[in-house]
Structure formats: C-alpha cells, structure tokens
Design brief:
The structure is a single chain. The protein is built from 8 helices and 11 strands. By secondary structure, it is an alpha+beta fold. It has 2 domains: 104 residues, Multidrug-efflux Transporter Regulator, Chain: A, Domain 2; 132 residues, Regulatory factor, effector binding domain (Multidrug-efflux Transporter 1 Regulator Bmrr, Chain A, Alpha-Beta Barrel), CATH 3.20.80.10. It has an 8-stranded antiparallel sheet with strand order 4-9-11-10-6-7-5-8. A 3-stranded antiparallel sheet has the order 1-3-2.
Amino acid sequence: MKTTEAYPSLLLIGQFSKLSGLSCRMLRFYAEQNILVPAYTDCSTGYRHYLASQLTEAQLLKQLRQADFSLGDIAEILNGLKTTQWEMCVAAQRESIARKIESMEMALEELEQLEKYQGPDECILARVAPMRVRSAPLAGERLRLREIARSEAKHIFGEDGSSSPLLCVYDLQTGPASATICIPAEEPDGEIMPGCVLAVSLHRGAYETIPATLEQLLAWVKRNQYRTNGKVVERYFPCGEEDHPHGRVEIAVALDDDSHTSQ
C-alpha cells in the first residue's frame, strides 16, 4: 500500500474499516477466525484498536480473498510463511483455480445444451416377456385412475393388491373408463399376459398431469415412426405412493410387432 498520508499509530475499528475497505462486521468476523486480530482491546470500554501497520495486512487479506484462498490458508499466510512455502501455496492455489475454471467451462457447455432443451426425451423401448397375472375389469376415471385402481386392487386381490406392483391397461381410444388391472401371479393362478415391446416413459409430478406425459410419449412414438397397437399400460408401485401427490408412475404404449423391428 503506497501512501504519503500519516495515520495515527492506533486506529479504532471504525477508522480502520474506512481506511482498509473492510466492514466492521467483517473485521469482527476475521478477528474471531484469528485473522487480522486487533492489536489490543480496551478492557474497560471494549473498543478494538488496530495498528496503522495492519492496513498492509488488510490489503493482503483482501487480495487473498479475491484469489479465492480459504480462511485457513489466509490465517497461515498472515501468520507468516517462509518464501518457499509462500511460493508453493500460490502454485497450489493456481492449480486449484485452473481446475475450477475447467469445471466451470464444462458447466457452461452443459448450460448451452440446456438452453436448447425442449423438455424430457426420456422415452425408451422395453421388451416385456410374457407374464402370469391376476386381472380384473375396472371402470376408471382419467384423473383419478391410480387412486381408483389401487383401491379396487386391494378390494379384489386382498393384501396382494396393496403390496405388489400394479398394472392398469386400457385402450388408447376409449380411455380408462374401461380398463383392466393386473398384479403378478404365481403358477398355477392367473392368466398369461402376452409379451410385447413397449415405448416407456417415467411420469413425474402430480398424477393429474399424466395426460401431458402420455401426449409426449405418443409424440415420441410418432417422431420415431413406430406404431402403437392401441394399448396403454400404467404401472404403479407399492408403499403407499398412491397417496403421495408427486409419486412416480411408469406409463407405456404397446407397439405393433413389426413397427419397431423395421427401424
């Protein structure tokens, strides 16, 4: 710090704050961290007194903070380092900042991709093997389908209906008003549900918004030139998620046998 101005040998915290550019709050904080500690504190008044020579220490502290040194490193530096230790400390900080810059550049690249983001394209194709199930018809309502399906499954299938994954199958055109609920079954119970290839998406958020997820799924199917066989499958999970306003639901549409193999 170059100056031709003469300062009092002792400065009160307000004076020191004004000259150093560090707020009184930060000066108290640094003192608590054993950094830039006042030369002495008057026991009778509690006033903190700084030496004028500590202004150079304050200037170095500000530079160290701007260079992103940690408080621990700053305490060591201000308490005195040998020249070789200082050089190693600065070199290590340079490497640390270079790594952070590289990380931030990668983050910026990701942000550029996110700026082009048009919504989740999380649809995949899944081949489902034939499975044995117990099933029952269900008259459902679009926005309450999961709630109704869970309730009916427990009523029809007993404890298995509330502790097993539950499938709800309905026609794309007629909707859930005429659906079928299914739970896995052990042989020889139940019937065989044929295997197929499904276009699958994971719905997030309130169940009432699931029509939008189905629309996105159908758009993905069309964009990839697949054809559906007209069946929609919703899969719900146990552990009471039907009572959770943001429980996840897997929603799928079955594809024609030949539409996905020709891609």
